[in-house]
Write a structure and sequence with these properties.
Elements (H helix, E strand, L loop, with lengths): L2 H4 L23 E2 L9 E4 L7 H5 L4 E4 L3 H9 L3 E4 L3 H12 L8 E2 L4 E2 L4 E2 L4 E2 L4 E2 L4 E2 L4 E2 L4 E2 L4 E2 L4 E2 L4 E2 L4 E2 L4 E2 L4 E5 L3 E3 L4 E3 L5 E4 L4 E2 L4 E4 L4 E4 L4 E2 L4 E2 L4 E2 L4 E2 L4 E2 L4 E2 L4 E2 L4 E2 L4 E2 L4 E2 L4 E2 L8 E3 L4 E2 H12 L1 H15 L2
Length: about 350
């Protein structure tokens, strides 16, 4: 499509004015990363940090931030451009114009096993060797990929997609428009054992897992059910691959977690918190609204709303930066201490 046809579909509410578009109008056939772009593709620059790519990219058009210098550089190279407040968001919408994920047609594969007591909504797609057990409710337009297993009495909301080989355990409730990626396990038993006179006694996990609408769960992520009550993940929260949500955790709205985050039982994550890769959280800790934990942070106590923490044990990020700077000087400091001891001992 022509660049002039594409731009309005990016939602110009993202742009400060219609004047933030160049007059050039190349044909756009796809999207690409700025370093890998070819003639006919659209790419984006997120900020001044990547300004050098304007001089070298082979893209025919760019989505730019609202920076006059970048606009002038693109214009000088003969590149079409549109300037918006949020280039990455606009580029995300551009991708959707050229790519749609695989969506199987409605219908049930002949090898799928569906219990007669299950309820299947309109236009559901159920793939090969999927197993839908007793009392399950599948909403309209649900998509079940091959080898998915849904245990008894689970509820899957309208428009939700369950990718291949994921497992939804008994009584789990999944809202509308959720995405559960391959190999994820929702509602399995929490890690509950109690000491008795001879060893460990199993505590049955009678609770359930509830995912609200538009939650996304990454590949091989696990969300465990508790002994009593529920483990809950609220609206629009997004989990990466290999995340562990233990029994009884409460995760708020619009939370994001990168790969290999792990939390013990009873943790509370408040709305819009961000957990980077490999963050670990101890039992019963609360992460406040909008707080951020950087990669590999070990959290043993509560984190205040809006706070940024790093390190193990977790500390304010500003303190962590100072500690990290000192760590580099430890060999030098050790030599200085050794020299001082020699001088003191004569």
């Amino acid at each position: 499509m022509k660049f002039s046809e594409l731009v309005p579909q990016l939602d110009l509410a993202l742009a400060s004015s219609l004047d933030n578009t160049s007059p050039l109008d190349p044909e756009i056939s796809g999207v690409a990363a700025v370093q890998e772009a070819e003639t006919g593709t659209l790419s984006y620059i997120e900020g001044g940090k990547f300004a050098q790519h304007v001089e070298s990219t082979a893209a025919s058009a760019l989505i730019l931030p609202e920076q006059a210098a970048l606009q002038q550089a693109a214009q000088a190279r003969g590149l079409a451009w549109v300037s918006v407040k949020y280039p990455r968001l606009a580029f995300s919408r551009a991708i959707a114009l050229f790519y749609q994920p695989f969506q199987p047609a409605p219908g049930t594969h002949p090898t799928a096993v569906i219990d007669p007591s299950a309820t299947v909504g309109k236009n559901a797609a159920i793939g090969a060797h999927a197993v839908i057990q007793a009392g399950v409710t599948l909403g309209d337009h649900v998509c079940i990929h091959p080898n998915v297993v849904v245990y008894p009495d689970a509820v899957i909301g309208a428009g939700t997609t369950l990718h291949a080989n994921c497992v939804i355990h008994e009584r789990s409730q999944i809202g509308a428009d959720c995405v559960i990626q391959c190999g994820a396990v929702i509602g399995a038993e929490g890690f509950g054992f109690v000491r008795n006179a001879t060893g460990w006694e199993k505590m049955h996990q009678s609770g359930r897992v509830v995912l609200d609408d538009e939650v996304e769960i990454g590949c091989n992520t696990t969300v465990d059910r508790p002994a009593v009550g529920e483990t809950r993940i609220r609206r629009q929260t997004k989990l990466d691959n290999l995340v562990q949500i233990a029994h009884g955790c409460q995760v708020g709205e619009e939370v994001v977690m990168a790969a290999q985050v792990g939390m013990a039982g009873g943790v509370t994550i408040c709305n819009r918190a961000t957990l980077a890769g490999q963050v670990g959280i101890a039992n019963q800790a609360t992460i406040g609204e909008g707080a951020i934990a950087t990669a590999k942070t070990g959290i043993h106590n509560d984190v205040a709303p809006g706070e940024i923490v790093s390190g193990t044990p977790a500390m304010p990020h500003s303190v962590y930066l100072k500690v990290s700077a000192l760590l580099k000087r430890l060999p030098e400091l050790a030599r200085s201490v050794k020299d001082l001891k020699k001088q003191a001992n004569g």
